[in-house]
Amino acid sequence: MTEITVHNGSLPPAVERFVVAWGEMGEIWGVNRSVSQIHALLYVSDRPLSAEEIADKLKLARSNVSTSLRELMSWSLIRRVSALGDRRDFYEAEADVFEMVRRIAANRKTREIDPAIAALRQCIAAAEGDARVSGEVRKRFHAMLDFTEGVARSFDEVLQLPTPVLAKLIKMGGAVARFAGLTAGRRSKRGPPSA
């Protein structure tokens, strides 16, 4: 991949690189590039910024900034703050990376996993009274629902872990799989762990 960076002069190169990269990653994750770039800028800013400052630093239209700020606030990734003697609104990002990821994950679950579960339940209900739907199809609906509900439960459990516990689990990495008797996604030769 060829990296093109246009230094606008108002951001240090490292910050500019982070903002551009976060914007590109956001697009891969299905988030508007401007929304992701504004989030990145606020995340690395050591002070709250006004919408005008954001628009100036990122060379974005003020209307685009306003829309993007509303989107970020709906995800609880940023908050509006006031400054004494200034009528403008300022914005700051959640700086705790674990809390930020929790909020992103919770919102993704609400917007993606929960509707999938609802749709699968509707499919199962519709299949119940339809003789044209084979037993195999019903079985696949139930398998998909069981899997998706399991993912949702696991998601909820992980999101509720205290930050120190979650940080330890992340640092352990593959040790968790080895502890469970799994390596590289496969069962070890010893067989499944005993319950």
What does this 3D model show about the protein?
Mean pLDDT is 88; it is low at 1-7. Helix 1 crosses helix 2, helix 2 (33-44) crosses helix 4 and helix 3 crosses helix 4. It is extended, with a radius of gyration of 22 Å. The N and C termini lie far apart (47 Å). It has helices at 13-28, 33-44, 51-58, 62-74, 97-128, 135-159, 163-172, 174-179, and strands spanning 49-50, 78-83, 86-93, 182-183, 186-187. The strands form two sheets. It has a three-stranded antiparallel beta sheet. By secondary structure, the protein is mainly alpha-helical. It is built from eight helices and five strands. The longest helix is centred in the middle third of the chain and has 32 residues, at 97-128. The chain folds into two domains: 13-93, Arc Repressor Mutant, subunit A, CATH 1.10.10; 97-184, no CATH class.
Determine Rg (CA atoms, Å): 22 Å
Quickly count the domains.
2
Question: Based on DSSP secondary structure assignment, what is the total number of beta strands?
Answer: 5
Low-confidence runs of at least 5 consecutive residues? 1-7
**What class, by secondary structure content?**
mainly alpha
Please trace the helix and strand order, writing H or E for each element. HHEHHEEHHHHEE
Keywords:
195 residues; mainly alpha; Arc Repressor Mutant, subunit A; 2 domains; two-stranded antiparallel ribbon; 10% strand
